[in-house]
Design goal:
1 helix; single chain
Length: 61
Amino acid sequence: MKQRQSTHTVAKRVLCKGAITAFLFLVGMFLYAPLSHAQLMNTGTINGTVVDQSGSVVPGA
């Protein structure tokens, strides 16, 4: 005959699964953080010439 698991054992198992999930989530966030930092950098350049429909250069644009 099978014994029923105590409530304490079930609660312990659920807490353990939650702790593992939280740990994996935090590890993922720490691994992703350096990648997302590049999105916050606001440096860069745009080079080119602006011309109108006739092909003339637009001064000051």
